[in-house]
Fold this protein.
Amino acid sequence: MDSTIHLRPVIRVVHSLNRLIGILHAVRCTITIWLQRDSPPVARTYSIQMTYEAAFIALRKFQDLWKNHLAPLLDKDSQEYLDGESIMADCTERGLRKAANLIAAHYANERSEWPLSNREILDIIRSTRLDKEEDFVTWLDPIGKRMIAIRHEIMKRHDVSSLDEAIE
């Protein structure tokens, strides 16, 4: 274990990452369920939009967590560090932070602007190239697996034996 890093903050970071992994897994499951259901279009549309919002916010949180807490806990030469950088680059290239801000965290670019229309929201989702639900689910799978590998490596490197370790 790196003696300059205390265990308690590492456990908190691991738990935060684990929550994001869980959210992205729940997003994949939820979209898959809705794609298999014969349901009213309104319910399906807003349920799937809700999952996009949850995923985009989770990925935005990952970006912040990566930059401020995860990356410093890893060896820069490790595969897990490279995986994290790859996730960051993909999120940046797809404009996911802006998408999270505009369709989940806020309702427009500026508070004084009118809320986005349904068409504008759909255009933002399309700009990420993740607008086809099946493609989105497929894209999220390796993202989640890389996050799990990052979590595992941080736990191993900093002697965190279990996700059940207490946080006070």
About this structure: The first helix runs from residue 7 to 36. The CA atoms of residues 29 and 137 lie 8 Å apart. The domain at 7-157 is CATH 1.20.120 (Four Helix Bundle (Hemerythrin (Met), subunit A)).
